[in-house]
Design a protein that fits this description.
Distance between the termini: 34 Å
Helix content: 40-55%
CATH class: Alpha Beta
Shape: globular
Radius of gyration: 20 Å
Order of helices and strands: EHEHHHHHHEHEHHHHEHHHH
Length: about 350
């Protein structure tokens, strides 16, 4: 299988990229598969054990109460494309995780696609988790007549080592964005604000900030009840204030983890894509990306991609107060330096 993972910190333009890739007739653009497996906050353990199709389908078809609460309270995100209000599933009764983003990008009728999978996947034999995921990608690719699979999940840059272990044949694309712009976008985004509250709750409970969801739930301080425990009220996210530097530190931490892991891979196993470069010259960047993932950059696809891009979006952090911007840049500096060093190493190859 021709398989590529796009990894990023999130809020780096990868959602747009997944939509552009979906428009290519040969690409199966798989969106937010790791949310399907681990929940929207990526707090559940990655399912790495051997499983049969019935267990795989239980994971993929289970609802995430947090995702349902965000939809119910009007805080859905651009990745969440399910026809809320007209589809079969509703937030009050639970929407299968695979429907929010994955199936709703692949089909205008995600309920019908869900039914096709429900009639197929549970019958699969026991095999490794990675082989089950390959089988799912392959089944969808055959069903939808696509020959190249590109998976993209926001925040997946921290999963580079895991992806390499589970899918050694896959190639990776590190998509990144200017640190202050990215951190500012994170600070305004419901998923990241919820993630920040979850970190606060873990620390308040005396746990590590990256603790698993079930551990946080078991020790949840009362002041977080109703936001991080049922009955959920996601409108309370607006009550929490975080310094922008918090998101700058978070962006830097994720970026450094990913860059370090990528540096251990063979040069031909990965490449980079800067959001700003995609905005500035979409034809050149999409052509380069197409060559890397193994498809042709047809004129029709490039025209469609250009039409989907808003080149005026980069540089949003420049409008911040000078002191706030300075603090945000300082918080982002470790990640910015890591990306700069990554670029330098990609250009300057050792001589023999």
């Amino acid at each position: 299988m021709n398989l590529t993972f796009v990894v990023s910190s999130g809020r780096a333009g990868s959602t747009l990229l997944s939509r552009i890739l979906h428009e290519h007739p040969e690409v199966l653009s798989v969106s937010e598969f790791f949310a399907d497996l681990q929940g929207i906050l990526r707090r559940s353990p990655y399912p790495a054990w051997d499983m049969n199709g019935e267990e795989l389908w239980r994971i993929l078809s289970a609802p995430d109460p947090l995702a349902d609460a965000l939809i119910r309270d009007g805080l859905g995100t651009p990745e969440m494309l399910y026809p809320y209000g007209s589809g079969r599933f509703g937030a009050d009764t639970g929407i299968p995780m695979i429907c929010h983003s994955t199936l709703s990008l692949l089909s205008d009728n995600p309920d019908a696609l869900f039914d096709q999978l429900a009639g197929e996947v549970p019958s699969w034999p026991t095999r490794t988790a990675a082989d089950q995921y390959r089988a799912l990608f392959g089944y969808l690719a055959r069903l939808l007549r696509r020959r190249v699979v590109v998976e993209r999940s926001g925040g997946s840059v921290i999963l580079v080592e895991l992806l390499r272990r589970q899918f050694p044949e896959a190639r990776l694309v590190h998509m990144y964005r200017d640190g202050p712009d990215c951190a500012l976008s994170m600070s305004r985004f419901p998923m990241y604000r919820l993630g920040a509250v979850t970190m606060q709750a873990a620390l308040a409970a005396g746990l590590p900030a990256d603790s698993a969801w079930q551990d946080i739930q078991a020790a949840l301080p009362q002041r977080f009840a109703g936001l991080l425990s049922p009955p959920y009220d996601m409108t309370r996210l607006a009550d929490y204030e975080f310094p922008l530097a918090f998101f700058g530190d978070w962006w830097s931490d994720m970026t450094r983890v990913g860059v370090t892991a990528l540096s251990d891979l063979p040069d031909d196993a990965w490449t980079t894509l800067a959001y700003e470069d995609l905005m500035r010259d979409p034809a050149a960047e999409l052509t380069r990306l197409a060559g890397f993932i193994g498809v042709a950059a047809t004129p029709e696809w490039l025209t469609t991609g250009r039409r989907m891009i808003d080149p005026g979006r980069p540089g949003s952090a420049a409008g911040l107060d000078k002191e706030m911007l300075a603090a945000l840049r300082a918080a982002c500096e470790p990640g910015t330096a890591a990306i700069a060093e990554q670029a330098r190493r990609r250009v300057v190859q050792p001589t023999g």
